[in-house]
Amino acid sequence: MYRLIALVLLAGCVAKSPAPIAGFRDPSTQIYSNAVLDNARLDGRWVQVAEFAAADAPACKPGGAEINQTASGLQIRARLCLNGVPTPFNGALRATGPGRFAAPSGEPWWVIWADVGYRTLVIGTPSGRFGFILNRDGPLPSDRLRAAREVLEWNGYALARLR
């Protein structure tokens, strides 16, 4: 009997504990990029409608991005609010795989969702250090916001930190 109790206690010591959340995403959750993304359809002006931020992050006016298709590939010029900090980006947005880009931030950007009309994009990072939602056409309708939130949650993001 005592051996059984000792074995149960020992098993509890070696059981896998949940991974701590790094940034705004649980790193133990698989993240997926959009496998059928048409990079040419990213061309144009985007408005930031949401970001992930810590509870104590300062307020930050949402930014935006201009993505242009050039002869050498996609170029981005942006000012995005990331964790309450206005952050500029300017340079190549080089495709590294389906829905995956090497961005001027030095951290990979993954398009984890685009609606069928390419009006809304959800961008995440495998590290979970940041994530944001971009939209083209004015306010984000509730159906697309709901879809974006579901995709973020599926990819391990902590929705409580989305603002």
The chain-level mean pLDDT equals: 88
What profile does the largest beta sheet have?
8 strands, antiparallel, barrel
- Could you estimate the helical fraction of the residues in percent? 10-25%
Number of E-type strands = 8
The SS-based structural class is alpha+beta
**Count of discrete alpha- or pi-helical segments spanning 4 or more residues:** 2
Beta-sheet strand percentage? 35-45%
Annotated CATH homologous superfamily = Calycin beta-barrel core domain
Across the major sheet, the strand order is 1-2-3-4-5-6-7-8
Using the coordinates above, name the CATH class: Mainly Beta
Please tell me about this protein's structure.
This protein is of the alpha+beta class and 163 residues long. The chain has a single domain (2-161), classed as Lipocalin. Helices cover 16% and strands 36% of the residues. The chain has two helices and eight strands. It has helices at 2-14, 142-154; strands at residues 44-51, 64-70, 73-82, 85-97, 100-102, 108-114, 120-124, 131-135. Strands 1-2-3-4-5-6-7-8 form an eight-stranded antiparallel β-barrel. Strand 4 and strand 5 form a beta hairpin. It is globular.
